[in-house]
Design goal:
The chain is built from five helices and twelve strands. By secondary structure, it is α/β, with parallel strands linked by helices.
């Protein structure tokens, strides 16, 4: 059992230590102070040759709580929208992406996911059909770093009108793709966290 956190194309893995791996060589998160975690993260992101950094912890929940305290922690939510075997994607900042955005004050992840999809795609009549695994990624934020947890939901829709990209959010296009088109268009030009969502659910 583990949690994967992305920073650009790099991965940070928090792995729950099992009894049969006690003697293996890990970076033990449980034994680290806050300054050590910060230092290890900064070293990792500046070492081009390293693609994966793995921490072990006796408790994934406790270990993640300790790790996330190094960052401004942000909640977001989004949707994998399906209609008649096609899935909805947005094109933003030269990448294919899924509609998503930050939670407003007092808003539930489910409410935020539907609102953000409606706003970014100009879509209506959305229904959540399943909760998917969340994703995590770190990005630069106000001269520091933020860690974002995105709640994902599978959705369906009966929307038939023209889709309208939210231009003010730098969304250039909103497109329906079937599974073959996803492999040919999206997979080659999207983010690692989005690939995880697609891999497990399409």
């Amino acid at each position: 059992m583990n949690i994967v956190i992305y920073f650009l194309s790099k991965k940070i893995v928090l792995e729950e230590r099992k009894q049969d791996t006690q003697n293996q060589s890990f970076i033990c998160l449980d034994d680290m102070c806050q300054e050590d975690i910060q230092q290890k993260f900064k070293e990792f992101i500046h070492q081009e040759e390293l693609a994966i950094l793995t921490f072990s912890t006796s408790s994934l929940e406790t270990g993640f709580e300790k790790f996330r305290k190094q960052f401004k922690y942000i909640y977001a939510a989004g949707g994998l929208i399906e209609k008649a075997g096609h899935y909805l994607f947005i094109y933003r900042l030269k990448k294919w992406d899924l509609p998503k955005g930050k939670l407003d004050m007092g808003e539930s992840p489910e409410e935020a996911a539907i609102r953000e999809c409606e706003e970014e795609c100009g879509i209506t009549q959305l229904s959540i059909t399943k909760e998917l695994n969340p994703s995590y990624h770190i990005y630069e934020h106000k001269n520091a770093y933020a860690l974002k947890k995105t709640f994902w939901y599978a959705m369906s829709t009966k929307h038939t009108d023209v889709l309208v990209p939210q231009i003010e959010e730098n969304i250039e296009k909103v497109e329906w793709f079937d599974k073959l088109q996803i492999q040919e268009e999206v997979v080659k030009n999207t983010y690692p966290a989005i690939l995880d969502v697609l891999k497990d659910n399409i």
